[in-house]
Design a protein that fits this description.
single chain; two-stranded antiparallel sheet
Length: 234
């Protein structure tokens, strides 16, 4: 990268984007830029929030490639035959894996999602299924920040008969040289808030049943994130 442009980039990061911990740019597998901020180093691991959704979507793709999942037109409830549909619900039965991946599935909550109830629930997959459907239209985009994506984690566990982290380690992380070490379970709000600010935790958050969060909860380094652009499942 041009030195002047690098200086301009770093000046903008320092002046306007103070929450940036690091940046790594790879082109054709070669590092062209790597810089860390806020006292972080190449070994600092941070909560990557919704990037976790992209990792889950990659894992769904790998599961498809390996035949664990037949196709993305499968109905969500095909993976949860034990789930009892609420009386009067008519939408959830027709929601597919494709709808979940493209975020075109409707939810019962409208403007204010019940995050406190979600975080304190013992089963995030069931909690999300209980809110899936309603009166919205299937096929209309609706971003699901936290409540909803966990259904994809539940599908991965059902399809592969492995935990999400074990499946990811075998098929994604280890081939890329990424190490995510721990299953993280929070006992309090304070623990979760500390996790959001940490730079030295290697892991992936789970609910009390051990199902990994799909919309948040993964920690990575900037270099590990950049490695994903060079991954080939073949």
């Amino acid at each position: 990268m041009d030195q002047i442009k690098i200086e301009e980039l770093e000046q903008k990061i320092n002046s306007k984007y103070g929450n940036t911990t690091g940046m790594a740019i790879l082109k054709d597998g070669i590092v062209s830029y790597e810089k860390y901020f806020k006292g972080c180093t190449a070994n600092s691991r941070v909560h990557v929030y919704s990037v976790t959704k992209s990792v889950i979507s990659i894992l769904i793709g790998i599961a498809l490639d390996k035949g664990y999942i037949e196709n993305i037109e499968k109905k969500v409830l095909d993976y949860f035959p034990e789930y009892k549909v609420k009386r009067g619900e008519t939408k959830i039965q027709n929601i597919t894996l494709r709808d979940m991946l493209t975020m075109t599935a409707p939810y019962k909550y409208r403007f204010f999602a019940p995050y406190i109830k979600y975080f304190t629930s013992s089963d995030w997959v069931k909690f999300s299924l209980d809110l899936l459907g309603g009166h919205g239209k299937i096929g209309t985009f609706r971003y699901a920040p936290l409540i909803g994506p966990d259904i994809l984690s539940g599908i991965l566990v059902k399809a592969t008969r492995q935990s999400v982290l074990d499946f990811a380690a075998e098929n994604l992380f280890e081939p890329l040289g990424i190490k995510v070490e721990n299953n993280l379970l929070f006992e309090s709000k304070e623990e979760q808030m500390a996790f959001n600010q940490s730079t030295d935790i290697s892991g992936w958050v789970t609910d009390p049943k051990g199902i990994h969060a799909a919309g948040w909860g993964l920690t990575l380094t900037p270099m590990e994130m950049s490695k994903g652009t060079n991954f080939d499942t073949k």
